[in-house]
Design a protein that fits this description.
The protein is of the alpha/beta class. Helix content is about 45%, strand content about 15%. The chain has twelve helices and ten strands. The chain has an eight-stranded parallel beta barrel with strand order 1-4-5-6-7-8-9-10, surrounded by five helices. Strands 2-3 form a two-stranded antiparallel sheet. The longest helix has 19 residues. The chain is globular.
Length: about 260
């Protein structure tokens, strides 16, 4: 089993437990469940930088990134920096995140918030809405075409944007459907953890222009973004590059200024 397979096995157990503790009716009564969402897709279409900044404490590939920061400071820092949206890891076992991180970020900033999670059940989409997310992530590598359709259509019915992540051409071909807003190319090979921007470049021409194109993983320099923009990418997910510093908001501010200056 690769790391993704292990995460999915653990995620099924976790989701089954959560479902037994908090019924759907309780999620639907959340004060945030009926709030108007903010579109990340629109923000990216109208942005020059396209930065989606991430809150991530650790990861299977890098172990600890940063445990000393609080989500409130990171969220308000990112908002002040002028990022297009914020991605929040809510997986606990592998990434050190939680749904509370999403809740705190929602109270701290009015940015579009992406719940970055390994979604394998409709319940998690209802959770995302109840905890203040504006966007959900679907990962093609762990879902069937039927699941992608079911989950993305449910998300759209809740006014959530949908980002679908692919790693290769096979995943892309099974995934393209009208209920998606954004297509993300993950530059990290899940088997080896190696990162290559060539993955984004190769897949870019196969993604229809109806979808906002996002490049994910391994983007740590302004030059990398300049390299990818000609391929039609409007969004750039940056996580550990900001999170490994003492002040992610300040790091994002400097990065966006550098990007505008080139």
């Amino acid at each position: 089993m690769n790391i993704l397979d292990k995460i999915v096995v653990d995620k099924r157990k976790e989701v089954n437990l959560r479902k037994s503790l908090i019924p759907v009716s309780q999620l639907e009564q959340s004060i945030l469940f009926n709030r108007a969402t903010i579109s990340l897709t629109s923000n990216l279409r109208n942005s020059k930088s396209g930065i989606i900044a991430e809150h991530k404490r650790r990861s299977p590939s890098k172990s600890v990134i940063n445990y000393s920061l609080n989500v409130q400071d990171v969220a308000s820092g990112y908002e002040n920096a002028g990022v297009c949206g914020m991605s929040i890891l809510t997986d606990g076992k592998y990434f050190g995140g939680s749904l509370d991180d999403l809740l705190i970020a929602r109270a701290s900033a009015s940015l579009p918030l992406l719940r970055k999670e390994f979604i394998i059940d409709e319940y998690q989409i209802l959770e995302a809405k109840a905890y203040g997310a504006d966007v959900i992530l679907l990962i093609a590598a762990i879902l069937t075409k039927a699941e992608i359709k079911l989950f993305s259509e449910l998300a759209k019915s809740l006014n959530l944007d949908v980002l679908l992540e692919v790693h290769n051409e096979e995943e892309l071909h099974k995934s393209i459907m009208p209920s998606l807003d954004m297509l993300g190319v993950n530059n990290r090979n899940l088997k080896t953890f190696e990162v290559s921007l060539d993955t984004s470049k190769q897949l870019s021409q196969l993604i229809p222009d109806d979808f906002v194109k996002i490049s994910e993983s391994g983007i740590s320099t302004v030059e990398a973004i300049k390299e990818l923009q000609p391929y039609g990418f409007k969004g750039f997910l940056i996580g550990e590059n900001f999170m490994k510093t003492d002040n992610p908001g300040e790091s994002a501010t400097i990065f966006i200024k550098d990007l505008a200056g080139l």
